Structure formats: structure tokens, C-alpha cells
Write a sequence for this structure.
């Protein structure tokens, strides 16, 4: 693995690669989680909806990972990066790796994540990296639809029956500890922002929260108080227990049969 | 085979998931250049959605058609500017309607604006009977680019090509 060589080169490329890796891993890991809903949704339409959301994210991840392999100088393919990196090399936030909860939890998670991606991609349309700018412009349309979908469910459930209201509330509480990490600057994002490639995560927090707050209010719910503990470390490759299992499932075929094609 | 024939053969390739519409009418064929001297075709396509699984099949078919006409071929995928349903031709829209799929309306402008809580009704005409008294059943249909609706007049369900 020649990532060390790339990291020592002076250009902005290695920094951009690290930054894009985080964005790609968020999309890839969440795509894998969303795929788990197939045959588990409350109705077949929702199986398809979440599979389609996941497919959009997978498409974003594929282009971003391919770009990472170019930027870091290793020439690794999207498949090399997806299937042959270990847990500690994944740079996604903890929010997307958490186990699938009930449907309310998924809608709370999707609302936060898609609102975050809306603001993120809107800003990245003017990235100095042309590939990233292209992905952002394309993906913004997709994640706007995801957010709309999540928002409709949060409103329906929050402003629904007593039970759905209670469970949607519980879901927002359960997701809350993982939200702050989305808006935490790390060395890669700071350097990427400096180079005009990326955007500072901390600059997105307010707008994303406003998006979520508007939906939550419409849903007759309220945002929970910030939790006393919060997730951290995903961008440094420090993960929670569920990621290892997710990667084992996602990677085992490629690793059991190296070089296999289908 | 003349260059216009190979160009036509490529332009007429049907979309694998919605075969009534060609890749040209769908607006995903962005550029096609035939180099007669080198017997070479350069093609640029753009995906409808980032994860659209049809892209690889489309690329294969383009290579196949070019090869069949005796041309070498280069297929590029371009992401930017992002595809929009506004690029769909009138002929393409008409074909969709005849096939029972409601063609897309005008694409929304994506942006960093507030959340649009679109529980409101868009006006979509039923491709079977033309009635505008229709309702959404599911926001994601059989492919990434479609939603599922139902006509309240003729009671038939139908696919809607989502405006993007």
C-alpha cells in the first residue's frame, strides 16, 4: 500500500483524497445499511424506496472512491477501496454505521443525514475539484428527494397516532448523540476547505439543524436536548461495534474469492 | 455502412429499463462523433441517477453497435452538467405516454432552500385516460427514475417519470 508515499507529497491531492474518502464512506456504509431494509420495510413500497435511496448513495460512493484512488496516487479502484480496506481505514461517521432500528429510527437518521447531504452538496458544487463538483451537482437533486421522503414520514408518524408519535420521539432521541459528529471539523476537512476542495463541516451545522427543526415542528414533535455523550472518532477510523459486522458482510465474498468477477 | 448509419444505430439504442424510449430521446446521449477516416466513434453519456444500474448495459450496447458497424469505439461518462428530465425530447415524452408512463413535469430547482414539505398534490395527468385526478401511491417506483401513481377516474395505476 503506497498511501504513505502519497501522504508525503506536498500537493493538496492527498488531503483531498482523505476528505473525499470520508464523504464516500458515509455514502457507502449508509447504502449498505439501507439495503438491509429490503424485505423488512413496513410495506413493499418502502422496501423499494429505501433500496433506491441506498442505490443513489452507492452511485455517489462509487464515483467518489474512484476519485480517491486517483488523488492518493495509489491507483486503487473503487472495488479495492470498498472491499479491501479494514475497519480502521474507514472514515465514515458513526451515525451511518449504527444498526438498523425500527422504521422511525431509520426515518430520523435519514432526515438528519439527507439534510446534511443537501447542505454539503449544495456547497460542494463549487469545489475546486471538478469531479467532486460534478458529483455534488448531480447528487444534490437526489438527496433533496431523500430528505423530502424522510420529512414526509417524520411528519406522518409524529403527527399520527399516540404510538407513532411516541416512537418517532424516541427515534429522534436515539439519533441525537450521533448528530454532532457530522459537523465536527477534522484535519482533512480543514485542509480540504483551505484548498477550496471541501467545505468545513462546522459551517453546515446551523442550516442543517434548521432544516430538521422545521420538519420536527411540523410533526408536532420537538428536538431532544443534546445528549450527555456523543459519538466521535469516525473520521479517524475509530468506530463503534456495528461497523465490523457490516464490513464482514459487505466484504466477505470479495475477500474469499480474490479477483472473482461476476 | 455510412457514418450516419452508425450514428443512427447508437442514437436508437433503447433504454434497457424503459425500452420504449431511446437513449437520445432520454437525453443521456450527450455527444456522438464519428471519425470516418479512423473508423472510430466517440460517445459521451451521462447517468440519470448516480447509481443507475442501466449505465453499464447501455455502454456495452453502444460498443456492440459500433463494433457491428465496423467501428472502434470510446465511451465516456460525464457527470457534469447533471442530467435533467428537461433534456427529454418531445418525441420521448410522447412515447412514454403511449406506453402508459406519465412523462416528467418541469424539473424542480435543487438548492439549499428550506425543506419543502410537499404533502401537496402535483398535477399529473393519467396516461391512460388523461384525467388529472390522480394520486401518488409510492414515491419510488420500479426504477430509480419513476414513482407510482393511481388514477381516481379510471382507477388504473401507472408509473410517473419523476421530474429531476
Amino acid at each position: 500500500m503506497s498511501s504513505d508515499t502519497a501522504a508525503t507529497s506536498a500537493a493538496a491531492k492527498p488531503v483531498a483524497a482523505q476528505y473525499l474518502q470520508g464523504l464516500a464512506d458515509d455514502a457507502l456504509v449508509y447504502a449498505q445499511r439501507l439495503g438491509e431494509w429490503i424485505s423488512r420495510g413496513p410495506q413493499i413500497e418502502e422496501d423499494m424506496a429505501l433500496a433506491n435511496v441506498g442505490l443513489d448513495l452507492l452511485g455517489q460512493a462509487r464515483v467518489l472512491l474512484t476519485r480517491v484512488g486517483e488523488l492518493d496516487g495509489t491507483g486503487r479502484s473503487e472495488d479495492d477501496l470498498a472491499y479491501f480496506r479494514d475497519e480502521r481505514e474507514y472514515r465514515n461517521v458513526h451515525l451511518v454505521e449504527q444498526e438498523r432500528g425500527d422504521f422511525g429510527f431509520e426515518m430520523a437518521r435519514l432526515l438528519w443525514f439527507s439534510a446534511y447531504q443537501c447542505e454539503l452538496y449544495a456547497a460542494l458544487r463549487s469545489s475546486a475539484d471538478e469531479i467532486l463538483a460534478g458529483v455534488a451537482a448531480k447528487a444534490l437533486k437526489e438527496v433533496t428527494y431523500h430528505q423530502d421522503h424522510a420529512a414526509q414520514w417524520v411528519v406522518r408518524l409524529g403527527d399520527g397516532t399516540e404510538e407513532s408519535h411516541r416512537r418517532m420521539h424516541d427515534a429522534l432521541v436515539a439519533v441525537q448523540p450521533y448528530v454532532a459528529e457530522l459537523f465536527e471539523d477534522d484535519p482533512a476537512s480543514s485542509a480540504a476547505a483551505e484548498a477550496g476542495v471541501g467545505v468545513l463541516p462546522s459551517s453546515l451545522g446551523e442550516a442543517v439543524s434548521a432544516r430538521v427543526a422545521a420538519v420536527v415542528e411540523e410533526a408536532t414533535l420537538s428536538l431532544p436536548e443534546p445528549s450527555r455523550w456523543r459519538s466521535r472518532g469516525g473520521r479517524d477510523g475509530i468506530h463503534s461495534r456495528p461497523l465490523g459486522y457490516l464490513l464482514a458482510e459487505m466484504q466477505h465474498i470479495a475477500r474469499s474469492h480474490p479477483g472473482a468477477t461476476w | 455502412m455510412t457514418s450516419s448509419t452508425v450514428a443512427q444505430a447508437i442514437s436508437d439504442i433503447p433504454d434497457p429499463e424503459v425500452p420504449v424510449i431511446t437513449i437520445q430521446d432520454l437525453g443521456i446521449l450527450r455527444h456522438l462523433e464519428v471519425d470516418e477516416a479512423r473508423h472510430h466513434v466517440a460517445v459521451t453519456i451521462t447517468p440519470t441517477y448516480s447509481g443507475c444500474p442501466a449505465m453499464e448495459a447501455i455502454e456495452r450496447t453502444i460498443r456492440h453497435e459500433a463494433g457491428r458497424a465496423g467501428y472502434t469505439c470510446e465511451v465516456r461518462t460525464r457527470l457534469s452538467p447533471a442530467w435533467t428530465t428537461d433534456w427529454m425530447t418531445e418525441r420521448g415524452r410522447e412515447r412514454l405516454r403511449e406506453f402508459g408512463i406519465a412523462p416528467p413535469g418541469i424539473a424542480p430547482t435543487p438548492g439549499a432552500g428550506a425543506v419543502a414539505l410537499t404533502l401537496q398534490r402535483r398535477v399529473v395527468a393519467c396516461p391512460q385516460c388523461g384525467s388529472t385526478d390522480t394520486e401518488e401511491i409510492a414515491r419510488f417506483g420500479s426504477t430509480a427514475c419513476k414513482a407510482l401513481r393511481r388514477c381516481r377516474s379510471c382507477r388504473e395505476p401507472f408509473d410517473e417519470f419523476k421530474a429531476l
Observations:
- Chain A has one domain: 11-256.
- Residues 1-10 of chain A have pLDDT under 50 and may be disordered.
- The first helix of chain A runs from residue 3 to 8.
